[in-house]
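Supplementary Methods, section 5.1.

A reviewer requested that the exact input to the structure prediction be made available. We therefore reproduce it here, unchanged from the version used in the analyses.
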Amino acid sequence: MTPEHKLETQLQHFGENRQDYHGAVVPPIFQNSLFTFESWEAIDAAFDDRTKNCIYTRGKNPSVSLVEEKIANLAGGESAKLFGSGMAAISAAILHFLQPGDHVITVQNIYGPTNNLLNAYLRRKMNIEVTYISGEHIDDFAGTITERTRLIYLESPSSAVFRLQDIAAVAKLAKEKGVKTIIDNTWATPIFQKPLGMGIDLEVHSCSKYFGGHSDIVAGVIIGCEQDIREIAVNEFELLGGKMAPFEAWLILRSLRTMPIRMQKHQENALQVADFLEEHPKIRSVNYPGLPSFPQFELGRKQMSGYSGLLSFELAMDDLSQIKNFFNSLKVFQIGVSWGGHESLIYAPAISYLKELPPEQFKNLGISLGDMRISVGLENGDDLVEDLAQALEL
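The structure derived from this sequence is encoded token-by-token as follows.
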């Protein structure tokens, strides 16, 4: 494969030396825990660089390494490291940059468990200070950086309300101030957004979402420069044990083949659903960066080439029994907490946020009981609209 090949072709063939696997069009799964050596000298040499040699699958495995190479290539990074969950990847990335007493700037609507890691666990364990901002303006960041600021953590679009941050502007400011940056790019995926090319240091994903795409794996990945990924591999990855199993890596490899096609269909369906919801009298508002009415639509067009299938809307209902009736009346949309799979899902963020966050922080998120998050899947778009319509009429 050469750089001239487009991403769809790269995802089919990049990194696959089929002559090594007897011409098999699908690479084998190296479902083994260890690798043996012919001599003292051979295993001794392997230990000189554990990140490049297969010794024990908790460190490096050929099935996992192939997928890491493909993902790094897709995102425009030098290297990538797969983990056993999205939170394992996020935790490792954050810990890589932090020391006790450091200061972190992040946005108000980050993923709940990430918030808990920063604001509860690391604050308690490492005396980490966290400042939350809306992130919609670069001045929000510039006015919050202190001499203790070590990390800016982004999530664009952010959870629940899908606010955007100007990624290139934040990366530029951070570099000028000597501050590291991480972005959770799970929503857009590297198909539609490439933050590393905008100057971000590390990109993290829950591969359980669009990278997997079939709701049958839990995984995560960090993408970045060779030095950072190598240091993470021998420290946070190896010592905290967040390894990726060979079979799960193989499932991601399968899913990468269809990822561009799937993302286009997610986008097509989501735009159809968002248009319907925006015009419905029982809907107060719709949060979807792909709508021209979205307040940051132009910023989205500048830094994204497309939109995924996750969006939210607020019901024009305040009575909890009416809200529950709508929620429970859907037939095609299933009730579930995750997203990014082939199936369409609905969830009310208030259910978990009220359990995870203090009341004051929940209030600052701007989320009500009537806010619904939907993951628009790969079903027929007309059927999805009809399902929402019938539930809204009951």
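Residues 246-279 form the longest helix (34 residues). These observations are discussed further in the main text.
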